[in-house]
Design goal:
This protein is α+β, with helices and mostly antiparallel strands. Among the domains are: 101 residues, Immunoglobulin-like; 107 residues. Helix content is 39%, strand content 18%. Strands 1, 3, 5, 6 and 7 form a five-stranded antiparallel β-sheet that branches. The longest helix is centred in the N-terminal third of the chain and has 21 residues. The radius of gyration is 32 Å and the shape is elongated. The N and C termini lie far apart (101 Å).
Amino acid sequence: MVSLWKTGLPALALFCGILLPQTLPGQAQANAVLNPARIEPGDTFALRVLVAGTAVAPKRVSFAAWQKQFPADNVLSRSNWTRSGTHWVQQFTLISFDTTSLQLPPLTVFLHLGDTIQTNPVDLAITTMFKNADLKDMAAIRDIRREPVLWYDHWPWALGALAGVLALAWLLRRKKPRKKAVPMPVPLAAPPPPADKIALEKLAALEQQKPWLKGDLLAYYAELSLIIREYLENRYSVPALESTTREIAALLKKTDFPDTQKSPLNFLLQQSDLVKYAEMEPPKSYHEEALEKAKTLVLATA
């Protein structure tokens, strides 16, 4: 009896101290936190799922409960489970384009032994700063990052100004003016081709390359957006190359840009922004359609 007691007690302690905490999923708790909980359409936000009461990392988080209110395609990325104090933490990056207030139900967390626990429900407010917001009012996913102005960016102007001052001083010190040379006729430079011709030629070259067939969607939509922005800058004298999609729309309001083309232009630029910055992939049928829409826009505003 004494021998059985001595050998059984350590085994019981080992079971209670090591195995039992890992086999009691009822003690585990899950919590979901949104950061931020109030966003604008097109903004990304973070979801953190924290699980306590289990010594082994959970298996996965199921978004099936959010399928109707928040499609799984809106989940852009997810991290691995990491340990933070007494919690297991997994972070997700999400995006939404609707304008609404969502009451999202609890998510299901699958534990390592196949058991499940539920998180708390969360509220998400998606609002816009514009009244009666439309697709054309939606901001670009990310603003353009501008480089800071440095002193050596202006050295050619400073050098030119110094050369001009030295030349003027030398001219003033001349005692005897020389005979004026007969100016040679300068041939007139050919005027630059129209902005619409340049844009259509670049669009035709892009169509021949067909980068979307090679799977290079990022380069394709970046080039398509650049051609349209260069055309707008040359045609309407607005700084389209250094402006966001929203800023371009505001600048074109001061020009004779036709109202019928404002919505197609904004949609085309926003789709390009989604591919470049959010790595979203439009339907395959839209790739060639986007090129045709760009040609139509140039021809309608030439």
